[in-house]
Every structure is written in C-alpha cells, then in structure tokens.
C-alpha cells in the first residue's frame, strides 16, 4: 500500500503573501489604511529579524520567530525608534495576527507559534484626555475670512465640533453624504466601515449652504472639504489647519497655550459639551 504523503507546508514568504492577499484583503475586507498598518509593522519586524538572524526574509521560517526575537524587536521599537507603549502594542498586535494565521496554514509549526504568541502586551497608564472650554472652542472656531481657504477651514472646524467626528471621517465626507433638507444630517463612514448619521445644527447647515453656493463645482462624489487640487484633504492637512486656528485663538484665550489640541481633543470636547448640556449617552 502506498503511503500518503503529507502536503508540503507553505514557505514563509508564501505565508506572508497569503496573509495580506487572502486573509486581510479577501477574507476580512479590511480598509486600505488598516492593511497599511499591518504592512508597516511586518516590514519593521522583518527588517529587524533579518539583521538579527543574518537571514534574508525569504529564507526565514516560522521556527525562527522565537519569543526572545520578538521581545528584542519590541525593545528596539521603544528604545531605538522611540515608539510609545501604545505603538509598541499595535506592532505586536499585527505580528500576532500574522502568527495566528500562519499557525493555521502550517500546523507543523504550531508549537513555535504558540510560544511566540505568549509574548504579552505591555500595560501602560492611559492619560486623561483634555477638552476645551466653551470659550476656548468659540475662540478656535473664530469667524470665517474672505479667502477660500479661510472659509473651508472654518467649515472644517465647525463640522468637527458639530459631529464629534474623527479627522479621517470628516475628510471622507462627500457632497452626497450631506442632507440639508428636512432632518439635516451628515453620513459618516467610521472605523470598521460603520456608517452613522449625525444631526447638523442650523448654523452648520447655513454654513454648508453658503459654502456650496460659493463653490458650485462641488457636487456628487466630490469631497465637501477639498484641498487646492480638488482632492480630499489629508489628516495632516486637518492637523495643520487646526494648529493655525489654535495659534490665532491663543491670543484671545491664553489657556490654549498650555493645551495640546488635536482633532481627537475636539472629539472629546464635543462629547463633554453635550454632557454638560444634559444630552444623555446611551
């Protein structure tokens, strides 16, 4: 009787490729930004591992990924690259996701994978996030100027404050995502591709109408808040415009000089102001 040969396990390079093309993209349908985060984490690890093991990534095996190697990589991130503990844990999350996937494809390496997965996340204290007072927020919003960029920036800040949205959600808003008639709202595509609708204040609706009248070319799939090239703003653009607004507002509200104001702080500001106004969070 002929012996049944066990299938040959996939190579390490094939596992990496399948992890991205089959698992992250095809099976889990993760967003391009999330896939890029996993890619960056694995690239950092493979570069570090190849130097430590004196091997090119294509010749590596799952058995090479030992707990000591992973711990050395994590120390490298914190000490040499000056990553925060949060960033260190995010890199480890990506590596662990790959190892779990690889273990299902190469059962002969399950023991090595199990040992590697035993490397724990690092605990850290979560700082209490700040928020702006009403006076500080009003100063940051200011008044729209005459220029195109000033009017766009004012609408950008107004939308961030009105909706409590993430910066990535606001820059993804298209003209068709905004409902101005009846129960005015904006549709936001958030993390995990979750869609939610946020009511718009009357003042926000009026400002959007004015913006669209001044920019009749904006319609349909076009970004509500474009850059000079007509494309959607980047997250760094949002942070830069917010920094400029905070710098101007600090003349009126010097307390802003002691605060680090980011789009995420505006998100917390919206939540706190709603709570202070008696809006329940269910």
Outline the structure in words.
- The structure is a single chain.
- The protein is mainly α.
- The protein folds into 2 domains: 12-118; 134-277, Orthogonal Bundle (hpI Integrase, Chain A).
- It has helices at 12-27, 32-53, 67-79, 85-105, 110-117, 134-141, 148-163, 167-171, 202-214, 235-249, 263-276; strands at 178-179, 185-189, 195-199.
- Strands 1-2-3 form a 3-stranded antiparallel sheet, with no helix packed on it.
- The longest helix is centred in the N-terminal third of the chain and has 22 residues, at 32-53.
What is the overall number of helices? 11
Task: Report the CATH C-level class of the largest domain.
Answer: Mainly Alpha
The major pleated sheet works out as: 3 strands, antiparallel
Averaging pLDDT over every residue, what do you get?
A: 92
Task: Find the CATH topology of the largest domain.
Answer: hpI Integrase, Chain A
Supply database-style keywords.
282 residues, mainly alpha, hpI Integrase, Chain A, 2 domains, 3 strands
């Amino acid at each position: 009787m002929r012996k049944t040969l066990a299938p040959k396990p996939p190579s390490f390079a094939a596992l990496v490729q399948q992890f991205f093309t089959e698992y992250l993209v095809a099976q889990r349908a993760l967003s391009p930004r999330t896939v890029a985060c996993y890619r960056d984490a694995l690239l950092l690890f493979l570069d570090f591992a190849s130097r430590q093991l004196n091997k090119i990534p294509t010749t590596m095996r799952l058995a090479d990924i030992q707990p000591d190697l992973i711990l050395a990589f994590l120390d490298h991130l914190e000490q040499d690259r000056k990553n925060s503990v949060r960033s260190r844990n995010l890199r480890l999350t990506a590596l662990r996701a790959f190892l779990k996937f690889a273990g299902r494809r190469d059962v002969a390496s399950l023991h090595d994978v199990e040992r590697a997965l035993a490397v724990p996340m690092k605990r850290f204290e979560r700082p209490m996030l700040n928020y702006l007072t009403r006076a500080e927020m009003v100063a940051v919003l200011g008044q729209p100027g005459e220029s195109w960029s000033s009017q766009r920036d004012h609408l950008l800040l107004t939308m961030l404050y009105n909706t409590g949205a993430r910066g990535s959600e606001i820059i993804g808003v298209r003209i068709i995502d905004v409902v101005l008639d009846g129960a005015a709202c904006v549709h936001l595509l958030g993390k995990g591709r979750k869609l939610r609708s946020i009511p718009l204040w009357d003042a926000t609706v009026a400002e959007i109408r004015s913006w669209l009248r001044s920019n009749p070319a904006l319609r349909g799939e076009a970004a509500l808040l474009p850059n000079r090239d007509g494309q959607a703003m980047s997250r760094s653009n949002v942070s830069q415009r917010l920094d400029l607004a905070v710098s101007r507002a600090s003349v009126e509200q010097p307390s802003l000089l002691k605060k680090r104001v980011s789009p995420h702080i505006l998100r917390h500001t919206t939540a706190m102001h709603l709570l202070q106004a008696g809006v329940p969070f269910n």
